[in-house]
Design a protein that fits this description.
Strand order of the largest sheet: 1-4-5-3-2
Number of strands: 5
Number of helices: 6
Radius of gyration: 14 Å
Structural class: alpha/beta
CATH class: Alpha Beta
CATH topology: Mannitol-specific EII, Chain A
Largest sheet: 5 strands, mixed
CATH superfamily: Mannitol-specific EII, Chain A
Distance between the termini: 13 Å
Length: 150
């Protein structure tokens, strides 16, 4: 299921400095374009980060921004933004991020299979390093397909 959500259409790579807000907006752009989320979902992620701190920094310079489904999710979806220059979550130098994975779940369960597959990848330092070494959208999409086939 993960490779069906994180397809080439929903992967971006950027090689410029961004604020954390601009990085999240950019990561959400394909989801907004395809009407999978509404603008209020993006706003909800900002509100949650400001209220609860950098809780979606999962370590390894990876962030998984998300909010509650009723805050503007139309269809379960994911997108990935690979930042070649680090983005500092909440402008905090202790939270550099180079991969943003947006998760939008239309309910409390439909994203769990994809999240479990993603977790298996992210607990492996070798796989995270491999992912971070990829420099094209097609290579990243193929990485997720390959991992899902294992």
């Amino acid at each position: 299921m993960l490779s069906k959500l994180i397809t080439e259409e929903f992967i971006q790579i950027i090689d410029e400095e961004l604020s954390w807000e601009d990085a999240i907006k950019l990561a959400c752009k394909p989801l907004l374009k395809n009407k999978m989320i509404e603008e209020r979902y993006v706003d909800a992620m900002f509100d949650m980060a400001k209220k609860h701190g950098p809780f979606f920094d999962i370590g390894k310079q990876i962030a998984i921004p998300h909010a509650r489904s009723e805050m503007g999710v139309n269809k379960t979806s994911m997108s990935l933004l690979r930042c070649l220059k680090p983005v500092y979550l909440l402008d905090d130098k202790d939270h550099p991020i180079d991969i943003f994975i947006i998760i939008a779940s239309a309910d409390n369960n439909s994203h769990l299979t994809a999240l479990a597959s993603l977790s298996e990848i992210l607990i492996s330092d070798d796989l995270v390093n491999e992912l971070k070494g990829l420099r094209t959208v097609s290579d990243i999409a193929n990485f997720f397909r390959k991992e899902e086939e294992k």
